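Reopening: Thiamine phosphate synthase/TenI domain-containing protein still failing for me.
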Amino acid sequence: MATVGSHALAPSPDARERGNLGAAPPAVIPRPAHLKLMLILGSRPGRVSLPDLAEAAVAGGVDAIQVRMPGAAPERVREVAAAVRERIGERAALLVNGDPATAAPIAAALGGGVHLPERAGAEAIAAARAVLGSGARIGRSVHSPEAAAVSDGVDYLLAGHVFSTASHPGAPPLGLAGLARVVTAARRPVLAIGGIDAVNVAEVIRVGAAGVAAIGAIVDTPEPERAARALRAALDRALEERLEADMEPQTTTRSWTEEPASPLAVTVNGKLVEVAAGWTVHDFLASKRLSDEMALVELNGTILARTAYGVTSLREGDQLEVVHAVGGG
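Support: Ran it again with your exact input. Result attached.
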């Protein structure tokens, strides 16, 4: 029986059947459309064990746990990641931080994804993808617009540090202007990290971040679930406010026929809306004053290429996730 922190952990039935985490990897856990709130776990100790911390954070609204344990042996990382997966189940994404040679096999055995350092180039990203498959999530840290512009093959970027933080003492932060430049250069959703809490999260959302990652705002508190819930509530408010600002309705409507067909009901970012019959994804974005270059769109669980926006017709019951990419290419 493994022990993590002060807690003994019994292996799950699946883990016992596999015998070890390197055998018979499970299917990739279904993932949410876009990550919004990530907890970086293991880079510094909290007030409770790492599995307890992960479980509390997910209960408070965290939708991704990144296991990051600099200097730890792969066996230790594997142990902690498995314990975290036991606690969070399928309620949140699991990501293992590190080079693909060590992180990807651990993540594959747990139905998770990987988070790669900025130095990981196209070859490393391809290596991780070869191990994990097309359905797994791969992220990469970036600290500059130049790095953000050459991150093909990943699903999201993590940009920071935005504000001064105990994790990077003495290192100059990106600041909001630097974050905005990263978002503009990026071709994938950007999560912001570094000194972000419920008070300042709206600032990073206003400059284009798709979500945030946290350490101290959750780890350093006596009640991590309550802290996560407060941060998630502030984050959701900020995202909603930005979406409403981006999607103010136009005063003109598009005429399709002399006798227009009944509108279609689709869901956009969790809200039911009506669109004109025959509209494409491009038409919907244009009605909200968004160019194709300004938005990342996921339709029914599949991320669309921008070249497809104009030829993809919307249908009754479609589920869209729209992320404002600010000036993204």
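Residues 1-26, 250-260 have pLDDT under 50 and may be disordered. If you still see a failure, please send the error message rather than a screenshot.
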